[in-house]
Fold this sequence. Notes:
By secondary structure, the chain is α/β, with parallel strands linked by helices. The chain has seven helices and five strands, in the order βαβαβαβαβααα. Strands 2-1-3-4-5 form a five-stranded parallel sheet, sandwiched between helices. The longest helix has 34 residues, at 117-150. It is globular. 32% of the residues are buried. The model has no long low-confidence stretch (mean pLDDT 77).
Amino acid sequence: MAPHILIIDDERETIQSTQLLLEKNGYEVSSIDDSTKVVEFLGKFRLGKPNPVDLIVLDLDMPGITGGELFKQLRDWCLAKEVPVVVYTAAHTRGKNELIKDAFSRGLFAVVPKACPEYLLMRINAALKSKSGFLGLQVSIEKQQLEEKYLYEKGSLDDPDYLRYMELCFLEQGEQILAAAYREKRMRLESEK
Length: 193
C-alpha cells in the first residue's frame, strides 16, 4: 500500500500542483484547505488506531489557525502517531523566520520552499524512510529540555510543561496509554486557558 500524505494549505493551486507531483510518484494524497478543519479531521483518530496518514505537508502562513499554532497541535497528534511533518511554505520569503525556527524547535522534520517541488519530494522520501528514528530523537531532545527544568524540583500537575515531560517519559518507554493520559490532561488544561 502506498504511503498516504495529507497536504494542509490554504492555496488551492499549491494543493493541486503538490498533489499531482506526489500522485505521479506513487503516493496516496488527501488535502485540507481550511486550517480550522485539521484538528477535527485528526481528532477522529484515537491512540491505538491505525494512522490515517503517513506524513503531513504543512503550510505555515495560513488564515484562521496559523501554521505555527496548528503545528503545535499537530505535534501532539503526530508524536503519538509517529507521523512526520514537512513544512512547504513561502513564509521564509515573507519575514517569517521566527515562525520556522519555532516549528523546528517543536520537532519539525524539514522546511522546503514552495518554489522547490523536487526538493519537497526528496525530503518526503527521507522523512518516510527515517521517521521512527527522527521522531525518537525529537522525543529525546524535548524530554531532555524539560528534564533540565524539573531536575531539582517536583513538577506541578497543573503545569503543561511538566505534563508534557511525563508524557514524553512514557512515550519513550512505549507506554502509549499512560502517555495519552498525560497528553489529554495537558491539552485539557491548555484549552481552559
